[in-house]
Design brief:
7 strands; TIM Barrel; two-stranded parallel ribbon; about 10% strand; binds zinc ion; alpha/beta; about 260 residues
């Protein structure tokens, strides 16, 4: 159940449980973090090219919260994105269960760990942010995720883009009406943001006109600017992990996991 990379994360996690859900960036600067959920539960999903091409061509910093299954279904795109230093690829559970508020701690850790392993394997990145599917969590689950060294990042207000009836105009207006410095904006990049590709250029233009800059979550929380390691390979990562596990007594490992 517990993957090797997952153990690697646990070993690195020296932070006490904070139980503080992040819903905005800790700053009064005129910045917003664009975040896009790439959810996949059963049916295979793919990147919304309209959104992706716009962001990449404009080099606008953005964060993808991908489920492990989405990462595996879209490995070539994820690998390509992982080469871009204005993109962060973060953890949105393994297969996107909407009921994680009812999960045991062990089941929560399994969801996070499996997705973490997939992101490390495919992207060569160490994710540090987690978003619960549909935003459903309980206090024990939140603490369990944080005990891995993760920050749980949700939002202050939702764009509403997975609702087909929310046309581009509505998304643009809702953003203008609600946005404040430090906001974490949430959209969907898996085809379920029905009018997001159409609305996004207008939202970006409007925010820029209002003096906002786009930033990564990691510019303000967690490890600043985590980058794919240039020498990363599965072999070297596994070797490092093996070295760590050899050095760490099993009892210490188990006590962290309890
Ligand atoms: Zn989702």
């Amino acid at each position: 159940m517990v993957g090797r990379f997952f153990l690697f994360v646990i070993l690195l996690a020296a932070v006490p449980a904070r139980a503080d859900l992040v819903t905005r960036l800790p700053t009064e600067e005129r910045v917003v973090a664009l975040t896009f959920d790439a959810c996949e539960a059963g049916e295979k999903m793919a990147f919304d090219r309209g959104i992706l091409d716009f962001l990449v061509q404009r080099k606008i910093p953005f964060t993808v919260f991908a489920s492990g299954r989405f990462v595996e279904s879209n490995s070539a795109d994820i690998q390509a994105l992982a080469q871009l230093d204005f993109v962060d690829i973060e953890n949105h559970s393994w297969n996107h269960p909407n009921t994680m508020h009812q999960f045991s701690t062990e089941a929560v850790l399994d969801q996070v760990g499996r997705a973490h392993d997939a992101i490390v394997r495919v992207a060569g990145r160490q994710p540090q942010f987690f978003r619960f599917p549909a935003g459903n969590f309980n206090e024990a689950g939140l603490k369990a995720v944080e005990s891995l060294g993760y920050h749980v990042v949700h939002w202050r207000w939702a764009s509403g883009d997975p609702d087909r009836s929310q046309k581009a105009d509505a998304l643009v207006k809702r953003t203008a009406a609600n946005v404040a410095p430090g906001d974490v904006l949430i959209f969907h990049i898996n085809g379920r943001g029905y009018h997001t590709a159409e609305a996004l250029p207008r939202i970006v233009e409007q925010l820029e006109a209002d003096g906002y800059r786009f930033v990564l979550l990691s510019d303000y929380i967690g490890t600043p600017h985590p980058r794919a390691e240039p020498d990363f390979s599965i072999v070297s990562a596994r070797q490092r992990l093996d070295d760590l596990v050899k050095r760490a007594p099993l009892a210490a490992l188990l006590s962290v996991m309890r």
